Amino acid sequence: MRLSEGANAIFGDLPAKASAMVEVPVGAGDGLGTAIHRLSSVAAVSNDLSRVLDESTEVALVVGGDCGVEFTAVRHALRDDTAVVWFDAHPDLNSPATSESGAFSGMVLGALLGRADGEFAAASLPAAAAGTPRLEPSRVVLAGARTYDDAEDAYIEEAGITTVSAFELDPAEVVEAVAATGASSVYIHVDLDVLDPSEFDGLLDPQPFGLAPATLVQTIQELRARFELVGAGLCSFAPATPEAAADDMGTILRIVGALAR
Fold first, then answer.
1. 168 Cβ contact list (under 8 Å, min separation 6)
2. Molecular function (GO) terms listed (predicted)?
3. Whether the Cβ atoms of residue 226 and residue 179 lie closer than 8 Å to each other
4. Can you tell me whether residue 195 is helix, strand or coil?
5. Which of 15, 179, 206, 248 could form a disulfide with 202 if both were Cys (CB 3.0 to 4.6 A apart)?
6. Crossing angle for the helix pair 2-12 and 242-260, nearest 10 degrees?
7. Is the peptide bond before 65 cis (omega within 30 degrees of 0)?
8. Alpha helix (H) ranges present in 142-212?
9. Pairing outcome for strands 61-63 and 228-235
10. Which of 200, 220, 218 is nearest to 210 (CA)?
């Protein structure tokens, strides 16, 4: 339950009139005959989130939970000129065939790139949102990833996906990587595990040698100064206690401020 508590803690600090809550089913869910665990729940959340996003013309900041919410959020925001910057300790590029856990959160970016189309057909989820283009590998920049499965590493090389290492990440390098895709707009995904656990505590799967919060905020600001923001996601806040949530909230609000200003 730590992820739901983290999402609720962030929600409580956002402007109530500009925010909406999408409930996540608490039951076990059903894989619908696929290798994606709880695919029925993934589909239910996707459909409900789509309805909420369709009701607004504003640029949305979608807060998880885990990274699974990004499947719908990215598809809703994507345009022909959009690149996706994926700030995450993990690339989330597994397919249902390569994932050892079956957790959708570890294959959400892969799904956006078409690696789970057959499975989504079983859940009556279209391969792309109506009226939006398909995300292509050439329009993805992985920033801060440092824990790869072998299958993800192979796919990154095969698809030619751009990566910017967490080690001594330079904001200007990320900006130039996006510019090299030819994009003029950007969707920014932030999984909080991109941060170094010595500087941010509320993580389920902390990975060492991550970004400093100040570096992440500066990079977001420089991306927004260069490209139009079409959407953003913030995921994976998992505080152990309410007191721990309060300790991390200052960092989170600085990130939210950079994404939502």
1. none
2. arginase activity; manganese ion binding
3. yes
4. strand
5. 248
6. 60
7. yes
8. 150-159, 171-180
9. parallel
10. 200
CATH number at residue 40: 3.40.800.10
Q: Give the β-pairing of 228-235 and 185-191.
A: parallel
The one-letter code for the residue type at 236 is: S
Domains in the chain: how many in total? 1
Q: Which domain holds residue 256?
A: 2-260
Backbone angles phi, psi at 191, to 5 degrees: -95, 125
Amino acid at 17: K
Judge contact between 39 and 123, C-beta under 8 A.
yes
Q: Give the residue carrying structure tokens 């590493």.
A: 153
pLDDT in tens, the chain (261 residues): 599 999 999 999 999 999 999 988 887 788 888 889 888 888 899 999 999 999 999 999 999 999 999 999 999 999 999 999 999 999 999 999 999 999 999 999 999 999 988 887 777 766 555 567 889 999 999 999 999 999 999 999 999 999 999 998 999 999 999 999 999 999 999 999 999 999 999 999 999 999 999 999 999 999 999 999 999 999 999 999 999 999 999 999 999 999 997
